Amino acid sequence: MTRIRLKIELNPGGVGVRLDKLAKISTEVEKFIRLLASDAGATPQPGELLAKDFYDGSFGSVIEYVHNVDPSAAVKFNQGLRFFSDFGPDQYINGEYSAATVRQFIDMGTVIDTDEVVKLGIIDPDAKDDKADWKSITKITTLNVDAVFNQEYNYDGALQGKLGTWYKDSNYFNLRELSSSELVKCFYSGGMYDQIYRLFEDKDAVVNLSGAIKADRATGRIKEVRVHWAKSYPPLSDKEFEKLFGLAPDLTGELSTSEFIDKIRDGDAEDLH
Fold this sequence. Notes:
This protein has 273 residues and is α+β, with helices and mostly antiparallel strands. It folds into three domains: 5-149; 152-235, CATH 2.40.50.140; 244-273, no CATH class. It has helices at 19-40, 71-85, 99-108, 139-149, 193-199, 238-245, 257-265; strands at residues 5-10, 49-55, 59-65, 118-122, 133-137, 152-167, 172-177, 183-187, 206-216, 222-233. A hairpin with a 5-residue loop joins strand 7 and strand 8. The protein starts with a strand and ends in an 8-residue tail after the last helix.
């Protein structure tokens, strides 16, 4: 076991630091460290990060999580510090870090002035404190992350869900996406009105649709879909569910799930063996 540790310096090269600035930056950095440590597999709570070994000049100290962690958690934590500290305009955010952690790193920038630097000293597991790998965080660093985090991306894809509200005087309806339970706004062209109308003949139907999807790049959350094709299916009865999912996982073979359901409903399940 080991400890999550790092060093921090505010106003490096200066003489002291304003007390109000110390309070604001310390608060935001503490939140970021806890969230990043959680992403790494630790469970720090407020009050469990200890600042110690202060030194003169600009504000500087060692920050340590008061509980032991698995070395892999400390390694992943340090990887996160390097990832965010070195973040440039051409990078992208992967799924290693939660949306809350990314947002908190961005929020750090709101208390860092344009001419200020927050230095973080990354200490590898069981290394000595004087072997820290120093990184600098500026407002520009946080803005680089902010620009990517709020960036959307578009792709053609498909999703499945339960019907929500349909605004007939508009050109969209809401769909409750099955895998995430998120509400997705689904836009359609005027020529699809009759097709959309038929979807709502059974409000409990499961809808499969495809189209141009707009999603959040950082979280992958789907924001909206421009529908190209849509079809609804009545919910499976208990007997149909057992017939479909009580068999081998590869039962559908080359058929899609929707095609396989149609086969079952048409009484052709024997032909699928």
